Amino acid sequence: MTEKIGFIGAGNMAGAIINGLLRQGVCPADHLAVYDHHSTHYARFEERGVCGVETVRQLVKFADIIFLSVKPQNYDEVLQNICPFAEGKIIVSIAAGISSAYIKERLGDAAKIALAMPNTPLLLGEGATALCQCSPLTDVEYAKVKAVFAAGGVVQDLPEEQMAAVISVSGSSPAYVYLFAKAVIAGAVEQGIDVAVAKALIAQTLIGSAKMLTDSGIEPDELIRMVSSKGGTTIAALDALYAHGFEQAVIDGMRQCTRRAKELGK
């Protein structure tokens, strides 16, 4: 990729995206730059050859593609700061609940925008990113943004009206998985199993189960049946989970996640 890429906000997600780009050789380090209020964050980037700049203006002038990797509550300030220099730039938002209309109100209708919802497994190159192309961003420009996220995992195209809801599916869902793992580990320790052994076993079980979902071509209900036998141990465990409303608790959590995402975008 020949385009230069800049990140406003030098947090974990910016670091994850940059790691993917460098690991996959998609973009050389001298085509990357970061800006953050806290220049102390720059050291981990600069040791890999990525420049930390002193001002937003420097960042925007440097970059062809600009990632807004700040919290939603900081968007007004950031968009105000980049507006005088942003013409013709590709703007990529990775914040929950921020709409293209919100950005265009502050940068103008000609702003070229992509909305993204990555997740933290991007840190290890195993991310899942939902991505939305917003007019007037061209297909060629969108493909360049898509290539950035593809360097760190799987990318799925979505219409903008689904971007708030997808946060509950992939953006926030790693936390659901970790909570489940935490509960399994606690249950194992209660029964006398060493915590390190339990962690290793549930982690590999989650990895293997995920591969069954992606690679076997078998639907979740059938995968559940494959593990279960009438009157067996798995059925006993599932009955307890169903009795405590496991599925509905997950669905309710997803609804609350989406509700909050929409609130953040107002």
Automatic annotation (TrEMBL):
Gene Ontology CC: one annotated term: cytoplasm
InterPro entries noted in UniProt: 6-PGluconate_DH-like_C_sf, NAD(P)-bd_dom_sf, P5C_Rdtase_cat_N, P5CR_dimer, Pyrroline-COOH_reductase
Matches recorded under SUPFAM superfamilies: 6-phosphogluconate dehydrogenase C-terminal domain-like, NAD(P)-binding Rossmann-fold domains
Catalytic class of the enzyme: oxidoreductase
GO terms of molecular function: pyrroline-5-carboxylate reductase activity
Location of this chain's protein in the cell: Cytoplasm
Domain Pyrroline-5-carboxylate reductase catalytic N-terminal: 4-97
Superkingdom in the source lineage: Bacteria
EC number: 1.5.1.2
This protein's UniProt keywords: Amino-acid biosynthesis, Cytoplasm, NADP, Oxidoreductase, Proline biosynthesis
UniProt domain Pyrroline-5-carboxylate reductase dimerisation: residue ranges: 160-264
Pfam families xref list: F420_oxidored, P5CR_dimer
PANTHER family in alphabetical order: PYRROLINE-5-CARBOXYLATE REDUCTASE, PYRROLINE-5-CARBOXYLATE REDUCTASE 3
Functional summary from the UniProt entry: Catalyzes the reduction of 1-pyrroline-5-carboxylate (PCA) to L-proline.
Entry similarity comment: Belongs to the pyrroline-5-carboxylate reductase family.
HAMAP family membership: P5C_reductase
Name this protein carries in UniProt: Pyrroline-5-carboxylate reductase
Organism (species): Ethanoligenens harbinense (strain DSM 18485 / JCM 12961 / CGMCC 1.5033 / YUAN-3)
